[in-house]
Amino acid sequence: MWAMRKPFWFGRWQxxxxxxxxxxxxxxxxxxVGPNLLIHYWQSHWITCPGAAPHDFSVCYFxxxxxxxxxxxxxxxxxxxxxRYQLFVNGTRVARGPSRGDLDHWRFETIDLAPxxxxxxxxxxxxxxxxxxSAPLAQFSQQSGFVLQGDTSAESAINTNHSWRALLxxxxxxxxxxxxxxxxxxxxxxxERVDGSRYPWGWQAxxxxxxxxxxxxxxxxxxxxxxxDTHSRxxxxxxxxPPQEETLQRLARVxxxxxxxxxxxxxxxxxxxxxxxxxxxxxxxxxxxxTTTYPELEVSGGQDARVRVTYAxxxxxxxxxxxxxxxxxxxxIQGLHDEFLPDGGSHRTFEPLWWRAYRYLQxxxxxxxxxxxxxxxxxxxxxxxxxxxxxxxxxxxxxxxIWEVGxxxxxxxxxxxxxxxxxxxxxxxxxxxxxxxLISLYVAGDDRxxxxxxxxxxxxxxxxxxxxxxxxxxxxxxxxxxxLYWVGMMHDLWWYRGESEFLRPWLPNMREVLAWYRxxxxxxxxxxxxxxxxxxxxxxxxxxxxxPQESNGQSSILTLQFAMGLREAADLESAFGDAxxxxxxxxxxxxxxxTVYRTCWDATRALLA
Length: 609
Prior knowledge:
By secondary structure, the chain is α+β, with helices and mostly antiparallel strands. The protein folds into 3 domains: 10-26 and 385-608, Glycosyltransferase (Alpha/alpha barrel), CATH 1.50.10.10; 35-171 and 199-242, Galactose-binding domain-like (Jelly Rolls, Sandwich); 246-383, Jelly Rolls (Sandwich), CATH 2.60.120.260. The chain has 9 helices and 27 strands. Strands 11, 12, 16, 17, 18, 19, 20, 21, 22, 23 and 24 form an 11-stranded mixed β-sheet that branches. α3 packs antiparallel against α4, α3 (430-444) packs parallel to α5 (480-497) and α5 runs parallel beside α8. The radius of gyration is 27 Å and the shape is globular.
């Protein structure tokens, strides 16, 4: 299928569908990095909060004042953190990050702060958190840390060191997930709890008094990957992705309420509701479709109250079954949740540090002696900023709906990496990612996240030759066929985009994958039994996704997958000038394929056994 210039479905569906793909070339980096910063030590240090345990949960705040004689035309900085950060300039958030990688390829973002800077005193502020043992499986970590480096000497005054002020936040904690809240395999991040009475409200504003904060504790000097020695474990590489989209997304409707009756205009943000003292109230919102957002909860008053926000893809019945996701009668919400304990102040806004996935969102309030006014509940949709450059027309409205649902799904599963699912795992599996990458190339014409995926999966390769099945992942997992899909991703990028400069350095890694397979071809010219998890599909006949095999392997489908990988690799070898290697790859692919047909074909059923 991948070797055809014309999509395989074109002739069959042409009478019904007109599909026009408008592929556009996109630059791979939104900002340039000063060349010295890619080959020398930085002048900045990694910093942390004094008293913060390096490997425990923590939320740290950092601030630095900057005096400027005039507003600059450009003020470029490079920033990163472990686990993650948000950066503010004069109270305005300008960045979130870093994009996920591993310690040997730790991303940093490049940002021009000039639009937020002004003549006189300016304040840079950052929040940095470490979810520690509760972190998502996709999150690597060395220890809590933050780094910010000016691009040139003109920006050097803001380089991170002990001149930055730091505060260890006492108000925040994690809510670990359990089977009581989420059934099945869950690998994403925790819920969050914020005690408003201990939170440093206004910490990011330029007029906040941080005189009681301590000087930041210095860690090692920052530096890029590839220099002679490193003084810190993070080997920094430039992030090539654009900022994630953030767009206001109002909740669609309230579908159930208890203890309070919201006005019709509440979801639009113009009709606050008040929960009386010593009472309970609950509001269930239906977005109408699944989404990935940073939810915001705005309240006034309510000292000693407790507010819980729960997120779910669907409601469940008394047996824990989802059923029809549009039905709410007799069903309850169950899933990841956050908690906010108001301090009684006005217009307090709670937003979790990481985005949430949901269709249904429920707000449960228990008040103490003071009433609580729920000013607003809103969200900011976030995802990789794909734009649909494809047009789809059909005389069948069902197909139009399928297109819309498919594109929404593709967007929800694409952030700083591709993701198998936005709610439960948020992991980049090569098998899922190859399909997602093809959708990106076809519909958006944007190859930046595709390249990022190829790099990340390639970075996971071990000396024996296999890439990990999913990456980034702090827990290694190996599915041998997924290494072949990684080869296929390179083939797809070459087929649709060219990209020889990007792909050529990965050819040795590709050959190592094929060498791992070559060593496991038996005298029968079929593959022997593969170690690790030889997953193919969740078919009923496949136990745990593994195809039936003899005791010594001899699987038809696994052998054919290797043949597919060889043919795709041969195309790349031919394109990049190694005709002899291409010839060898194709010869082995032909031998494997003919052996499968000769030994596994069941003529009576017209199927391969």
